[in-house]
UniProtKB/TrEMBL annotation:
This is acetate--CoA ligase. It is an enzyme of class 6 (ligase). Its EC number is 6.2.1.1. The lineage of its organism: Bacteria, Bacillati, Bacillota, Bacilli, Bacillales. Pfam families: AMP-binding (PF00501), AMP-binding_C (PF13193). It comes from Planococcus koreensis.
């Protein structure tokens, strides 16, 4: 069979020859790009901001920020001053110390980034939260991490159960006329009175950087801790994969509550001193194309669901905007359909470069590079210096074209360093002390391209967001009508998957459209809108193992009209 390929892009790329670079690459050489290679002491905020503020890039724009109300820009020098102020503010109004967990729970705004990098300058571990999270989701994360402080807005504050979080000593509020008390501190009021000079807390390479909570198929969300050293891979992939150069204007559409929004929203581009665009507010095709035109975006990193929505908005719309500045387009988070890649070539005259990685990998891991032919539907090839393989359930490497576990050889620079408070869980990711097992199934073709096949577990990817079925099931069970709940991902042409719940009702409750809506609202209010089941189907009883575990694979088979497979463990 002939494989569809889209030829490499001609031009001068940072990664000029994949094979040659891959055959002889040493991560230790990348360390020399950073000042800490001389001092031994590291700080992400210094490498992303201050270093440039002290160089020829002093007056270069670091951040363009835009939403419906604000349109602002900050040079690297201004970012240095604002983040110093934020660091002084956090220090003066709390007892936060190096290594403490500082959470961010607010919509995108310049203040979010001042606070984030101010906290990093203090040596705090930053925990970003998605703005759509509701009380239950917030509580689990702040409680597990023993967070000491948070920055939020008056609108979101009611979702933080302060009385149940004894460790949470300080709340920085970004709003107007904030009423301060022993716990609440007015962030904006103090920001401009704080000094713009700050002595950075110098850290070790292995000290904590960010704590991202993410979902698995069992248990509550777990805290994935990354170390400062992750910057080595984030920097190098900004070069090779994002192909960033001095004149670029870069836009990553991801929310800072997810790993893409930290690692590639700000860390990777700023490590290379690149001008970065942040757009606040909700997705809209017009606003997105307009942003590319307004800022002259050259490198654009987004996600399959967004591309599919843009596709759905029609090609005529594309012609209303000047998108001629775009030179490199990338995607992450879910499988990128070949159809979308073809659409990209047709309407933007650009290849959309798929990239694969996860919260746990800390940086891009398998990618398509501009200097390499694309095979639409393939995630591409491993980042040079990282060994990726397909292994069986015992950890033996499989030959090309055989489907198995997508695994990465332990020890890549941005590998997660801990699951917060849960060393056993951390260890469970690794096989034979050699392979990190991703939970994805895939195969590699004879030319070394990797092809995603699905999740091995029941994790749901909806609109690129990772949702653990257990978390949704637990919330459903809190609803007075729900006796049993099983949650699966149902394939959807735009969102990848949507969440479908099967529910058995308690005595005295009858299925109805009203009850469906009530249960949906309950999950929306308790967890997050994106975690609420789009579909609910009532059943008298759900398929369970004899030990009482809901058999999601049977639910999925029912849903998709597939054979149910081995039912020997199912209760009678
Ligand atoms: O199943 C894979 C899918 O997203 C999972 C990781 O989710 P998360 O930790 O939220 O990180 C998302 C962005 C870094 C993976 O296990 N995934 C991510 N990228 C791709 C993908 N599936 C297919 N193709 C991709 N390019």
């Amino acid at each position: 069979m002939k494989v569809e390929t889209i030829a490499a892009v001609q031009g001068d790329h940072n990664l000029h020859n994949y094979e040659e670079v891959s055959s002889d690459f040493n991560w230790a050489d990348v360390e020399k790009e950073f000042s800490w290679s001389k001092t031994g002491k590291i700080n992400m905020a210094y490498e992303t901001i201050d270093r440039h503020a002290e160089s020829d890039r002093k007056n270069k724009v670091a951040l363009y920020y835009q939403d419906q109300k604000r349109h602002e820009s900050y040079t690297f020098y201004e970012m240095k001053r604002m983040t110093n102020r934020a660091a002084n503010l956090l220090k003066a109004h709390s007892d936060l110390e190096k290594g403490d967990r500082f959470f961010i729970f607010m919509p995108r705004s310049p203040e979010l980034y001042f606070a984030m990098f101010g906290a990093l300058k203090m040596g705090l571990i930053v925990g970003p939260l998605f703005e759509a999270f509701m009380e239950g989701a917030i509580y689990d994360r702040l409680d597990d991490s023993e967070a000491k402080a948070i920055i939020t807005t008056p609108e979101l504050l009611p979702r933080i159960p302060l009385d149940r979080l004894p460790n949470l000593k300080t709340v920085f509020l970004v709003g107007e006329n904030v009423e301060e008390d022993g716990k609440i501190v007015d962030f904006k009021k103090h920001l401009h009175t704080c000094s713009d000079r700050f002595e950075i807390e110098w850290l070790d390479k292995e000290d904590g950087l960010v704590l991202h909570y993410t979902s698995g198929s069992t248990g509550k969300p777990k805290g994935v801790l990354h170390a400062q050293y992750a910057m080595v891979q984030q920097y190098q992939t900004a070069k090779w994969v994002l192909d960033l150069k001095e004149q670029d204007v870069y836009w990553c559409t991801a929310d800072p509550g997810w790993v893409t929004g930290t690692a590639y929203g700000v860390f990777a581009p700023w490590l290379t001193g690149t001008t970065t665009v942040i757009i606040g507010g909700r997705f809209s095709p017009d606003a997105w194309y307009k942003a590319i035109e307004d800022f002259g975006v050259t490198v654009w990193y987004s996600a399959p669901t967004a591309f599919r929505m843009l596709m759905g908005a029609g090609d005529a719309l594309v012609k209303e905007y000047d998108l001629s500045t775009l030179r490199h387009v990338l995607s992450v988070g879910e499988p990128l359909n070949p159809e979308v890649v073809r659409w990209g070539v047709q309407v933007f005259n650009k290849r959309i470069h798929d990239t694969w990685w996860m919260t746990e990998t800390g940086a891009q891991t398998i990618c398509n590079y501009p200097s390499m032919d694309i095979r639409p539907g393939s995630m591409g090839k491993p980042v040079p210096g990282i060994k990726v393989a397909i292994v069986d359930d015992r950890g033996n490497e499989l030959p090309p074209n055989q489907m198995g576990n997508l695994a990465i050889e332990k020890g890549w620079p941005s590998m997660m360093r801990q699951i917060w408070n849960n060393p056993a869980k951390y260890e469970s990711y690794f096989m034979n002390d050699k392979w990190y097992v991703s939970g994805d199934s895939a195969y590699m073709d004879e030319d070394g391209y990797f092809w995603f096949q699905g999740r091995v577990d029941d994790v749901i990817m909806t609109s690129g967001e990772r949702v653990g079925p257990f978390e949704v099931e637990s919330k459903l069970l809190e609803h007075p009508a729900v006796a049993e709940a099983g949650v699966i991902g149902k394939p959807d042409p735009v969102r990848g998957e949507v969440i479908k719940a099967f529910v058995a009702l308690n005595e005295g409750f009858e299925p109805s459209e009203e009850l469906i809506q009530d249960i949906q609202q309950f999950v929306k209010k308790g967890l997050a809108a994106h975690a609420a089941p789009k579909e609910i189907e009532f059943k008298d009883k759900l398929p369970k193992t004899r030990s009482g575990k809901i058999m999601r694979r049977v639910l999925k088979a029912w849903e998709l009209d597939l054979p149910t497979g081995d039912l020997s463990t199912m209760e009678d």
